[in-house]
Write a structure and sequence with these properties.
transmembrane helix, membrane
Length: 335
């Protein structure tokens, strides 16, 4: 306890160093994740007869070129729509205030405890919304501030893909001998349980985001690209994601007309039908091998611990923990 106390008192010395190490490690972790996603595609293309360097170059250019094109074409539109949304925010706020007053007056005859609880719920929702907007703005500033660090990611990914076998050999020799075979078995099980799920889920989210943007634009809904991006990103959260993604669209549609609200609801249900019956069975399948009850439990814990980020990471973390627990149990039974 004394050592821990002294260590914490010395935090002004080691905390800045730890912060620098964390910032520098971010592009490497992102690059490793992207390499993990692209490597099976590279191997598939290479096994079909294409030389490995050419396969890497083509997939590399398609992936980062696609991201660059989307960013080049999409970011200005998103900024314009966000700017328009901020300009119209007073009108949206006025409409929202009208709803609050109407709800307040319609619940005034209710018992005092229930009436106060309704007011408290709306106050908490306003505070949560304000906090969320603050975090979004801070996150965008953080991305812009880290631009020069993130720009190295494509270069790291290229060399990791090119020297993938050498990286595996290096990790193999750096790993203690007694951990090598159990480590390989563990990583294979994690890849089987998690790899196809992540790749499939990201593909489904991309398709859903594109379909949502196109559908909202065709119906004349305001800010279709911003809302489509929100729907696509939140769709990665099982069960609760569609509700979270649909909420901003329904709120904005309610300030336009009842007809627009109905259109948005129809679009959301249509997208979920397409995902649940066509996209997910074909692309994701049942690769996760986790019962829905445990997935919901993981989402509840993740949401309570880390909010929206926890909801996004809950299922992958739970899948890794499941594989870890299985291997530890087998290890202790064996010994």
């Amino acid at each position: 306890m004394i050592i821990l106390y002294v260590f914490m008192k010395l935090s002004p010395l080691w905390a800045p160093v730890l912060k620098v190490i964390f910032i520098i490690s971010i592009p490497f972790f992102i690059s490793i994740f992207i390499t993990y996603l692209l490597h099976p595609v590279v191997e598939y293309t290479h096994n079909r007869g294409m030389p490995r360097p050419i396969a890497i170059l083509i997939i590399y250019l398609l992936f980062f070129g696609g991201i660059g094109l989307i960013a080049y074409k999409g970011i200005p539109v998103i900024i314009d729509q966000l700017w328009e949304l901020s300009e119209n925010f007073p009108r949206l706020s006025q409409t929202y205030s009208g709803w609050i007053k109407q709800i307040h007056s319609s619940t005034s005859s209710w018992p005092d405890g229930i009436h106060d609880r309704v007011d408290q719920t709306f106050s908490e929702f306003e505070a949560m919304l304000s906090n969320l907007l603050t975090k979004v703005v801070a996150g965008l500033k953080g991305v812009l501030n880290s631009f020069f660090i993130l720009i190295v990611i494509p270069f790291i990914v290229f060399y990791l893909l090119k020297d993938y076998d050498q990286v595996k050999k290096t990790v193999w020799y750096l790993t203690p001998r007694k951990w090598r075979e159990p480590g390989i078995a563990f990583l294979k099980d994690v890849d089987i349980s998690l790899g196809s799920y992540i790749r499939g889920q990201l593909t489904v989210c991309l398709i859903i985001g594109i379909l949502a943007t196109a559908s909202l634009w065709l119906t004349g809904m305001k800010y279709p690209l911003v809302l489509g991006v929100i729907i696509g990103i939140t769709n990665i959260i099982p069960y609760f994601g569609p509700i979270i993604g649909a909420f901003p669209a329904v709120i904005i549609a309610a300030t336009i007309s009842v007809k627009m609200v109905l259109w948005v609801i129809v679009i959301i249900f249509g997208l979920q039908f397409i995902e649940g019956n066509i996209l997910s069975p074909l692309i994701v399948g049942k690769s996760l091998h986790i019962h829905p009850v445990f997935i919901i439990l993981a989402l509840l814990i993740g949401g309570e611990v880390a909010g929206v980020v926890g909801l996004i990471l809950a299922v992958p973390v739970f899948a890794v923990l499941k594989v870890t627990l299985t291997h530890l149990t087998a290890h202790f039974i064996k010994h």
